[in-house]
């Protein structure tokens, strides 16, 4: 290891990784000999990595002649191994990183050391970019430094944290935080915010304001300026993002800053896709292989020829919105979305954006008031939705696959309009969450269509495929009929729903068409990993049997039977049970609880955001759900299946279903089933579960 004697007063070690550096060594060494800092106070450590191009011999010759304290070392290939090797051998108590092709202003080291007054404050120099012809270029990094004088927070100098250079860092801090040698590039991005986070570092820009300048050569061959290759723009960026995600998951105070670096790295991938759109599937597959929980998909501006039309969609909090989004997520594909602004009738759910990032390419939310059963609202959504489609297709190209989902009928009206105008070039799947034309009591829903050019267009489209338009002005019957008559695929969520809806179709030709295109597709269950992302409920009291219920109450679906079962339990048994209701509190619910002698066993909470709800389902001893009561209103089959069942099934927690005989819920793969209305059976089940079920 060639070196000069290094007296004990050496304070600063300058580490210089060298790769194919022979042309840059003379200027690099000259910039150190020109420093105004006493040469006895610093050493230079040149670390050669990779094939020797004669640089080691030249460095030894020039450094020996310079009189500088120095070391010449070798390491494995890469800037990170070289910097780590040099740092390990450093004899100064402060370390500076320097790139061999760059130079310094004469006062650089002296100004940095003058500001080294604390082991938690990192002095920072300024920077100027120099092209290969010696011309100075503006630097966004330097502009950011100039905006802040004195000691500042790491968040104020985010660009400085993306460079290894410019900084004077305590040696013990560098030793605790080596460069990641598994990264081929971006190792500085992956290091310094995490270092600042872990060590509580702040930064002092005084040296920059006093003229200490780092002169960075911007050249085509440097690591940070590699070409538009898949390896550099995609693979290496994903390597860095993986490391950054691990840092974010530790939850330090700078996690939001680190998350911004994830976005910056994803921007490289986005630019690669802009240049190579034909490789979108390959890039998406590469990202999904990494299992990155916080990848910012929206940055990529992915193109998609698949469209979801869902009047009610994320970020609005509603079972219909959530199921439409889950359909997109479990498909494993990217979808464009056209939806309505539901802010006048629905609250938003902050956690749905996390789901949407993985599944949505572009989302257009159509302006206008939310409308359930007025024909003018259907027409407005069709017109605005068609305009949104045309604008979306400027970027994404023709949409070849359309999926519409209703309870809200406007979804199917826009789906039908797209199919009517595009014909065979688009495949339209129309999904029904529940019977549309009749309510839970079997009554026809109010709402009528009125003659208009758009209605006439749908009439013509139906007749063109041999389907007679409805002989009624019911808006909801029309919504069902245009889906039955025009869709290439008609989706039902359970067989009983399909049976109940087909019973109302009297046109034999239309009925045959439905049967030919019908599929039963249960509401989707998300993969297990999604259940770990939210925040769970408050800590549950040990030694108590905890039952969780999540959802809304309706005239045909309530908690009356469960409340009665609690009331019939012995007081000492009921005291060992807590029934947690996550629902919208109403005066009727509050009154029911107040009348119950076991009211101390019942706790009501606000409904949870969706991902928090998923997390919470894993915390309870038992999850409860119940059927809608349909026998009293004369329904031959119960067409309803609680949407929460699909989410409960993914939790791994035991499930208790209170079901109508023969219903789909009564046939579901849950752990315990009692008959709706059978309070003694519910009491018996609780007596059975509580002694052996407490955690």
TrEMBL record:
Residues 13-142 form the Glycosyltransferase 2-like domain. Coiled coil: none annotated. InterPro entries: Glyco_trans_2-like, Nucleotide-diphossugar_trans. Gene3D superfamilies: Spore Coat Polysaccharide Biosynthesis Protein SpsA, Chain A. Keywords: Transferase. Transmembrane segments: none annotated. One of its GO terms (molecular function) is hexosyltransferase activity. It comes from the Bacteria. This is Glycosyltransferase. It comes from Tessaracoccus antarcticus.
